[in-house]
Amino acid sequence: MSIGRFxxxxxxxxxxxxxxxxxxGGKGWxxxxxxxxxxxxxxxxxxxxxxxxxxxxxxxxxxxxxxxxKYIWNASLDVLSFLPIESVDxxxxxxxxxxxxxxxxxxxYRATIYVxxxxxDARSLRIAMQTKGGGAVAPETVRAVEDAILTRAxxxxxxxGKL
Length: 163
Prior knowledge:
Layout: H1 2-22, H2 31-44, H3 52-57, H4 70-79, E1 85-89, E2 94-97, E3 109-115, E4 125-131, H5 139-160
Antiparallel strand pairs: 1-2, 2-3, 3-4
Protein name: DUF3576 domain-containing protein
Organism: Fuscibacter oryzae
Pfam family, one: DUF3576
């Protein structure tokens, strides 16, 4: 009977040590590997992306790529420059504007632009627009804005010399 009690005590002690090592804040048998893995994820920009701490410290990995086409992004800002910018997130590819009237137009519009892919392609761009009264915008108007942005993006690419 003393051998059974000894074995149970040995197993219990091993489990307690293993649990203590896991919760050691990165300083146990498994903690160093977990900390290294978390650091690797932050530096590589995987998971939720670059850590906030890394961005604030300027320690973001320069090899991290953002999956947004820069020509479509810049063309969107150029074409819709008459709209005030409310928020911009280049990491998710979303530009949200406030209400503004185009030059020579009387109706105020608001737009949300989604740049969804790194390709210079019509599939990479989605636009949602509405009028000041909350009314729907004609599909032809949205299509015309998309065409203007894609045309400007192609012009920017040609100017950049990467054709």
